[in-house]
Amino acid sequence: GSVIPPGDNKFASLNTAVWSGGSFVYVPPGVHVEIPLQAYFRINTENMGQFERTLIIADEGSYVHYVEGCTAPIYQSDSLHSAVVEIIVKKNARVRYTTIQNWSNNVYNLVTKRATAAEGATMEWVDGNIGSKVTMKYPAIYLLGEHARGETLSIAFAGEGQHQDAGCKM
């Protein structure tokens, strides 16, 4: 991808090599999508690797709110969720990306999420992390033009034996 190169990190490289499924959203110039778009990703079997990829392009002056949910039931063995999310927010556009991840305690949740915001653009990450064995997630926003804006709200909850390494980069 143009926002996250395949060699960015080992999990992005793995995702690039084996990804299957995900979402692609293009919002034309000036279009405001009034109802949030929704996607749901679920790990449905033991010892599974899930490698979805999401690409959102919000053209000039557009708006979209994308809501993603991720879950997995409790299995006897570990699974890996290694997603890549790339968002391109063009001039004076706005994207809100909301994630609620409710993983069982045997999922390794190692994802790469990054957005670029052009002149006058706004990118908003709303990130909720519940459960998992290990979560490592730092949604990032590259502010590429004057008056580009980024906001991140990240909430994580971990129980006994769980590790949450979450935050954001701007």
TrEMBL record:
GO terms for biological process: iron-sulfur cluster assembly. Signal peptide: none annotated. Residues 41-170 form the SUF system FeS cluster assembly SufBD core domain. Pfam families: SUFBD_core. It comes from the Bacteria. Belongs to the iron-sulfur cluster assembly SufBD family. This is Fe-S cluster assembly protein SufB. It comes from Deinococcus radiopugnans ATCC 19172.
